[in-house]
Amino acid sequence: TQLLEQSPQFLSIQEGENLTVYCNSSSVFSSLQWYRQEPGEGPVLLVTVVTGGEVKKLKRLTFQFGDARKDSSLHITAAQPGDTGLYLCAGANRDDKIIFGKGTRLHILP
Amino acid sequence: ETGVTQTPRHLVMGMTNKKSLKCEQHLGHNAMYWYKQSAKKPLELMFVYSLEERVENNSVPSRFSPECPNSSHLFLHLHTLQPEDSALYLCASSQDGQGYNEQFFGPGTRLTVL
After folding, report:
1. At A88, phi and psi to the nearest 5?
2. A36/A103 Cα distance (integer angstroms)
């Protein structure tokens, strides 16, 4: 069974600090997505990465796909209270099935 | 507003009740999905419909019965549920059923089974 392990499960930091969250697997994925889910809402796509080693930036968020396409990281610079939410990674495997991780719950303190 | 709406937003039901969850997408997408989101578990894919045909059923108990009358609407019919079925049920849609496509999620229905 393919699994996506996300770490840490919970993270609470002060506004202005930097942070990195991780998404790891022993399996190769053809693509990987990061979603953010806020309370009372469904997940919203932030980015899709498809090439090993790919780096994408979205304002203060930097996403990296591992060279072997088994892992990914999300780095946030100068975190803001608006970054608070549940961050989910989702991988598409060779059978084109989507698998989600359990998520990292991020809380930015003002 | 993602273009995917779900009703009701909250539902409390007894184990002997029959109820239905409704999802509607206004994006012209061809694929629709039902997910279950429980605390401490990954998002679980339940059903996938592509062009109104069910293409995936991930070993979901028969007390959950999906229906897709057209590409814009998706239902999840519930009967004789168990307390462990209490969760957030999310509907999503995408352009087609390819795994790399962006999925647009609705706000979910928070279901409590007493």
Report:
1. -115, 135
2. 9
Q: Which of A33, A42, A101 sits opposite B108 (nearest CB)?
A: A42
Q: In chain A, which residue's Cα lies nearest the Cα of B101?
A: A48
Each residue's pLDDT tens digit, A45-97? 999 999 999 999 999 999 999 999 999 999 999 999 999 999 999 998 877 78
What is the spatial distance between Cα A86 and Cα B19, in angstroms, rounded to a whole number?
Answer: 29
Along chain B (114 residues), what's the average pLDDT of each consecutive run of 10 residues?
A: 92 92 96 92 90 79 94 95 95 85 93 95
Show which of residues 47-66 on chain A sit within 8 Å of chain B, judged by CB atoms. 48, 50
With a pLDDT cut of 90, the percent of chain A lying above it is: 85
What is residue B27's three-state secondary structure? Answer: coil
Q: Are A31 and B107 in contact (CB < 8 Å)?
A: no
Å from A63 to nearest chain B CA? 16
d(CA A65, CA B103): 19
Peptide bond into B8 cis (omega under 30): yes
Residues A23, A64: Cα–Cα separation, whole Å: 10
Residues of A in contact with B45 (CB under 8 A): 97-98, 100
* B49: amino acid identity, one letter: Y
The residues, ordered by sequence, that sit 6+ positions from A77 with a Cβ below 8 Å of its Cβ are A18, A60, A61, A62
